[in-house]
């Protein structure tokens, strides 16, 4: 019965979260939150953290992305999460631990993750920005922001300045293990992209660009 009630509460949180995530930014939608929940649960089990806190924090961590401009999205999300969890009937101890994790899942406002649950949420969020899914999310964001592939303020800039840095700042051993192969996949993608662009830049110096592209 207790488990049923816990599941009911969680489903209620997912329903409320869905309303916040239903907007144009598909790189930070409910699907992203659900994947962060999956990663978070996996890391929590391996690192011995509180799965309930992680699940709730993952589901709500980005709900404030279109919130008040004077706050960071992590601070907005944390404030909204506190209200939602109070209304759903969660104990104050859980609410505060979820809040602490959400507020430090991004470095925007300089909050450092201090609890194991906060560190795991941070890592789980970054794991959704690597691999094929990470690339998909990056280009989804580029479509919204109008970023070119390379150059100033581009997809390549975001990759080098943000995603490459995540590698150095992961908090848990478990996350570093999952991150590595997905990051190598991304590195291979960018090498291929630059090689293809180089072939195009030789256009004009060759008789046929298609010859360069297709015959290597
Ligand atoms: Fe976020
Ligand atoms: Fe996120």
Keywords, separated by commas or semicolons:
216 residues; binds fe (ii) ion; HD/PDEase_dom; single chain; HD domain-containing protein; globular; HD_domain; HDIG_dom; 10 helices; Hypothetical protein af1432; mainly alpha; Methane Monooxygenase Hydroxylase, Chain G, domain 1
CATH 2nd-level architecture of the largest domain? Orthogonal Bundle
DSSP strand tally: 0
Mean pLDDT over the full residue set: 91
Could you say which overall geometry the principal axes of the C-alpha atoms support?
globular
Unreliable runs: none
Structural class: mainly alpha
> What name does CATH use for the topology of the largest domain?
Hypothetical protein af1432
* SSE topology string: HHHHHHHHHH
CATH top level label of the largest domain: Mainly Alpha
Can you offer a commentary on this structure?
This protein has 216 residues and is mainly alpha-helical. The chain folds into two domains: 1-111, Hypothetical protein af1432; 129-216, Methane Monooxygenase Hydroxylase, Chain G, domain 1 (Up-down Bundle), CATH 1.20.58. Helix content is 71%, strand content 0%. It contains ten helices and no strands. α2 (30-47) crosses α6. The chain is globular. It starts with a helix and ends with a helix. It binds fe (ii) ion (2 copies). The site of one fe (ii) ion (FE2) has 5 residues, from loops.
